[in-house]
Amino acid sequence: MGLNIVQKIFKKHLKSGSIAPGEKISIKIDQTLTQDATGTMAYLQFEAIGIPKVKTKLSVSYVDHNTLQTGFENADDHRFLQTIASKHGIYFSRPGNGICHQVHLERFGRPGETLLGSDSHTPTQGGLGMIAIGAGGLDVALAMAGQPFHLSMPKVLRVNLKNKLSPWVSAKDIILEILRRLTVKGGVGKVLEYSGPGVATLSIPERATITNMGAELGATTSIFPSDGVTKEFLKAQGRLNDWVELGPDKNAQYDEEIEIDLKQLEPMIAKPHMPDNVCTVKELAGTKVHQVAIGSCTNSSFKDLMTVAKALKGKTVHPDVSVVISPGSKQVFKMIADNGALADLIASGARILESTCGPCIGMGQAPQTEAVSVRTFNRNFQGRSGTKNAQVYLASPEVAAACALTGEITDPRKLGAKAPKIQEPKKYLIDDNLIVAPSNKKIEVFRGPNIKPLPKSVAMPGTLCGSVLLKTGDNITTDHIMPAGAKILPLRSNIPAISEHVFASVDPEFPKRAKEKGGGFVLGGANYGQGSSREHAALAPMYLGVRAVITKSFARIHLANLINFGILPLTFVNEKDYDNVAQGDELELAVAKLDPPLVLKNKTKGTEYKVTHSLGDRDMAILKAGGALGYVKEGKD
Ligand code: MIC
Ligand code: SF4
User: 578 and 471 share a domain?
Assistant: First the structure.
C-alpha cells in the first residue's frame, strides 16, 4: 500500500509503535523551537534534566512575545534566554528579528524533517513539508535532551484543493472555510494533508497561513507537499540545499477526505469569539470598525504586507479606525522599507509596530471599549485582545485593508476589480545578523529576580479527595485558564506570582479558593484546554493544588501538559454525569490503580460516576511519579 506524506515522515522518524491511527507512538525530533513566553520554563526544565548540549540537529530560541518592557522582567528574561541558549548549543533569535514561525519559515524549516515547538502554531512549518508539532515546554526540553516525542498516531485527512483563488480572495479564506466546515474540534487526532491541483497555485507563505491556522482546528498538525514552489522559495532564501522533493505515493491511502474548490471561495471572516464562527464578509458588510490590526504569525509575510501597502497607497485610513501593523520578521520589515511600501503604509496613517506578536497576544494595542477590531490573526477568544468587551473578527489582509479604508466591514472586491498582484521575490533579503550562534566559551547564565525555581511536584497519593473548585462549560481555552496579555505575561518565569491569575477572566476568586481548600478538582465541558501550548495552564493549577481535571473531552496539547505536571485528566464515561456534579461538591477518587474506568464518588450528593481516560502505560507512570520531570529523572524515557 502506498504512503501519504504524513505516514512517510512518521515512518522515517518512528522510535516506537506503528503508524496505525490511534497507536501510541514516539518519534525522533530533528529540530526544536521555543519562544520567550514558554521558553524560560522550557530551559529551566532542560537545565533540570542535566544534559550539557542539545542533541537535536537544530534548536532555536526566539524572543517575540514578551517584548513590551514596562518593567525589568521581560528584559531580564531575554538576557536569561540568550545566555542559556549560548551555553547549551542553541541558536538565539534576538528581539526585533521577528515572530518565531515567520523567521523559522524563512531561515530554518526543512522539508521532510520533524520540528517540535513550545508554541501551538509550530505547524506553520508544515507549509514547507515538515511535520511540525506544538507541545508544552517540558516536551520540547525532553526533545532537546534527545528524547523521542510521544503522541498518538493521528489519522490523515486529505484536503483536496481544486482550481485557483479569485482576485481579492486569499489563503486565509481557505483556512477560514475549513474552520467553518470542521469547527475548532474538527481536527483533533488528525493531520491535514493538502493535495490536488490547487496546491501548486499557492506560495510558501500562503501555505504557511493555512498550516498555521490549522492549529485552531485542534489538529496535531497540517502539511503541504514539498514541490517546485518549495524549491523556488528555499532558493530565494539562499537555502536550495535544504530542499528535498516530497509527495504522497500514487496509491496513497487517507483516513478521511474533503474537497475545496478555490474558485468558489469568497472573502470570509470569523466572528467573535471563536475562530470557527465563520461567515462571508458580505454578510457583515456595513458593521462599523474601530481597529484594524495586521500582522501575527498567520498573516505578516512580505506578500501580506505588500498587499496591504498597495491597497492603502495614496489613501488615508478612515478617521475612526486605528490601524496597526506588525511585520512578521526583520526580513519582511527591511524589504518593505527598501522598496518604499513602508513609506506608503506610514503615509496612509497606519501605526507601525515592531516585528513581534504584539496585539495578537494582548501585548499592547488593546482596542477601545466595545470596539469592533478586525485582525489578520488566528485567535479571537474573548478578552485576548486586552479589552474584555471588544468584538474581535479574524480575516485576511485584503479584508483588513478594505476595512481600514472604509471604517466598516467591507468585502475587498469593493475596492475594484484589480486586486494587488504580488510576485514572490526571486531573492529574499538575507541577513542573519540578529541570530546569535551558540558559544564554545564558558557562559555564565544570567538570572534576574523574576526567574523563580521550578515548583516541585509530588507523587500521586492512593486517593484524591477535595471539592470541585470550578465548573466550566465547553471550549474553555488556555487563555481562560491562564490568561496572557501585557500584565500577566511578564510573570511566565515566576509560577507563584502567575498562579494568582489562574482563571482570572472566568472566576477571579479561583486562586484564593484553591489555596483555602488545599487544592481539589476542576470540572470542564468538551474540548477543554483548546488553543495555546502554554504549560502554565497546567503548571499554575498544579501549584494551586489541582490534582485532577474531569471533562467531556480535552484538547491535545493541554492534555499532554496536564500529564506532564501530574494532573490526572479524566472524562466522564457517561457525558450526562457532568450535569450531576456541581461546583463545591466534595469528591473522592481512588487512584492507587489507574486502569479505567475509575469510580468517582460524590460525597456531597451520595452518588458515584464512572470516569475514564486514554492514558498509555508511560502516561500513567508519569502521573504516578507526579510529572514528567520526576519520571525522566528516574532514568526513563
Ligand atoms: C498564543 O498564540 O496563544 C501563544 C501566546 O503564542 C501561545 C504560547 C504561549 O502562551 O506562550 C501558543 O500559541 O502556544
Ligand atoms: Fe505570537 Fe499570536 Fe502567533 Fe501566538 S498566534 S505565536 S501570540 S503571533
Answer: yes
The domain boundary, picked from 415, 450, 482, lies at: 415
The answer to whether residues 520 and 615 belong to one domain is yes
In the reported structure, the alpha carbon of residue 325 is separated from the centroid of ligand 2 by a whole-number distance in angstroms of: 14
Ligand 2, atom nearest to 295 Cα: 8
pLDDT at res. 409: 98
Pocket-testing residue among 377, 532, 535, 561, ligand 1, by greatest number of atoms within 8 A of Cβ:
532
CB-hemisphere CA count at 13 Å for 303?
24
Please report, for the domain that includes residue 625, its CATH number: 3.20.19.10
C-alpha cell at 172: 486565509
| Residue at 400 is within a domain | yes
Residue 508: predicted pLDDT: 96
Pocket of ligand 1 (CB under 6 A): 37-38, 65, 119-121, 134, 361, 379, 484, 531-534
Cell reading at 70:
514596562
| Domain shared by 404 and 313, yes or no | yes
Domain assignment of residue 81, yes or no? no
> CA 260, CA 265: separation in Å to the nearest integer?
8
Q: What's the pLDDT score for residue 395? A: 99
| pLDDT for the residue numbered 40 | 97
Cell of 306: 505588500
Q: CATH number, domain at 288?
A: 3.30.499.10
Atom of ligand 1 at shortest range from CA of 361: 5
pLDDT of residue 628: 94
Q: Do 386 and 514 share a domain, yes or no?
A: no
| 296 touches ligand 2 (CB under 6 Å) | yes
Whether residues 471 and 587 share a domain: the answer is yes
Same domain, 469 and 391: no
Q: How many domains does the chain have?
A: 2
- Out of 122, 375, 378, mutate this one to test ligand 2's pocket (max ligand atoms within 8 Å of CB): namely 378
Domain assignment present for 395: yes
Could you tell me where the DSSP H helices lie in 135-240?
137-144, 171-182, 204-213, 228-236
Per-residue pLDDT at 458: 86
State pLDDT tens for residues 81-121.
999 999 999 999 999 999 999 999 999 999 999 999 999 99
Tell which residue, 17, 126, 142, has the closest CA to residue 628. 142
396 with 528, same domain?
no
Listed residue (624, 615, 621, 613) closest to 637, CA to CA: 621
Residues of the chain scoring pLDDT < 70: none
Q: How many angstroms does the Cα of residue 42 sit away from the middle of ligand 1?
A: 14
Q: Please state the pTM of the whole predicted model.
A: 0.98
Instruction: Please answer whether residues 439 and 88 qualify as being in contact, where contact means their C-beta atoms are separated by less than 8 angstroms.
Output: no
- Kindly state if the Cβ of 121 falls inside 6 Å of ligand 2: yes
Residue 301 CA, ligand 2 centroid: distance in Å: 14
Using the 3D structure, point to which of 395, 415, 435 is the last residue of a domain. Answer: 415
What local confidence, expressed as pLDDT, does residue 417 receive?
Answer: 84
Residue the block writes with cell 549560548: 86
What is the distance in angstroms between the CA of the first residue and the CA of the last residue of the chain?
32
pLDDT of residue 242: 98
Neighbours of 195 (CB within 10 A): 20
Give the structural domain span for 529: 463-633
Q: Are residues 616 and 518 in the same domain?
A: yes
